[in-house]
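In response to a reviewer's request, we include the raw inputs and outputs for one of the modeled complexes. The two entities were modeled together in a single run.
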Amino acid sequence: MSETISEAVPGNTLSEFDRDTAVRQREPGVHDVRLSPGWAIGHALNGGYLLATAGRALGETLAHPDPFTVTAHYLSATTPGPAVIRSETARAGRTLSTGTAGLFQTGADGQETERLRVLASYGDLDTLTDDIRTSAKPPAMPPLDQCFSARDNPAGPDAAPEMGKRLDLRLDPATCGWAVGAPSGRGEMRAWFGLADGRDADPFSLLMAVDALPPTAFELGLSGWVPTVELTVHVRARPAPGPLRVSVSTVNLAGGFLEEDVEIWDSADRLVTQSRQLARAKAN
Amino acid sequence: MSETISEAVPGNTLSEFDRDTAVRQREPGVHDVRLSPGWAIGHALNGGYLLATAGRALGETLAHPDPFTVTAHYLSATTPGPAVIRSETARAGRTLSTGTAGLFQTGADGQETERLRVLASYGDLDTLTDDIRTSAKPPAMPPLDQCFSARDNPAGPDAAPEMGKRLDLRLDPATCGWAVGAPSGRGEMRAWFGLADGRDADPFSLLMAVDALPPTAFELGLSGWVPTVELTVHVRARPAPGPLRVSVSTVNLAGGFLEEDVEIWDSADRLVTQSRQLARAKAN
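The model returned the following structure tokens for the whole complex.
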């Protein structure tokens, strides 16, 4: 296990994340994107990756640059390949702009199907006051070099989802019981988080990072797919360079649904993101 | 202070909440509503009341009856009087339907202005499995008869906002320091919650209840207006009859924004709702 989570991206090489979330404006409010199979978990593309991509398109449409609060509803499974994102402004204010985006794919029958719908307000993180009164504490977890990477997976380094190769994820051993058939029974998942090619975090990669850890359901003893119904992300500060700590918790697994609450802390001990998703828990 | 939070609504009388959130379909996807001044806080109508009203209209448009996860972005201040809600389906699935709604008012100049935009997924709460594994605990708070109602307000019973007359709200004394100039410094607010006319809770009144308590900012020592930017509500179960317990917490007052996290517990000790809002905290 290497000692550092990130290595510098050489020269002007575009990072994997920037390359795979790049959107190309066809006309105002219409962006083309080629979704990469590199962010798949099983057969489906990761919801955080899709949100980051749609978020970049919406950021080009809105008058403000940074996602402040972003909600996505996932409508159907997204496949790698071309997609189009249609976005529009609902209101352009002085401090915040609000708008919507829809990501569509065209099937073999020529029919467009919507994959996710986004409603979001954007602002400018650089204009926030420096009055910070946070009573939350960073998650208690071991140093990075005592956490588990995909290379430590008892099922072998290739057992991780394809998306795992894009990330430098180091799981807190206290939340890894599921990987050896001994889930803790607590709805908790924690990890050090970076991108594998060393790209530092920004507001758009945070939209992906909130959905990048194994589901808390695994530690609750469920093993099936946990599809996201809805995901809301609050980006509260521009993250400092360096590894992030991501802490996920679930308290209410009930009626076939559960919530995942996420906090992301940066290397300067700032709570940079809070998110919550509602997901379906398929019974074993 | 009466011993019970609710008295029966006599006969067939429509409750205040049902009357004031009633929507009338003009054509499919277009509903008229008359917003009541009875739900004002200062000059603005309460965001939860508006969400409940838009939620009812969207529920008539979608194929499923109950709000499961509902997000609203508040675009401009809403005034009492007529409004129109335009809603549409994004996807109708077997278990969930997803759609959007916008609430508009027409100004003196004849121009329509959007007040809030909603994105939501609805389902049928009666179809949920009865597998309940909740590790959260109901809030620790005194019995209802030891909590404070508007009648106990040291500034007089009429000092409460107009909306307070619609509610039977009993605040936990531990979170009432702000009312006597001695805020606790903790971002917490708790109350027993009912409707003043005794109407029991349902999924739509929960959409209002999550935004009905005084802001946690008051207990953090701020006294100004705390306008909601975005509010997301997960309704996780149909509430049992009887008083609700509403617990609100804030951990991240930073950069001029704060989150309010809400849990609502019903009389059967079921966690029926989780919500989070992002709000602006105006400096004193």
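As requested, we also summarize the result in words. The first helix of chain A runs from residue 16 to 20. Residues 144-280 of chain A form a domain with the Porin fold (CATH 2.40.160.210).
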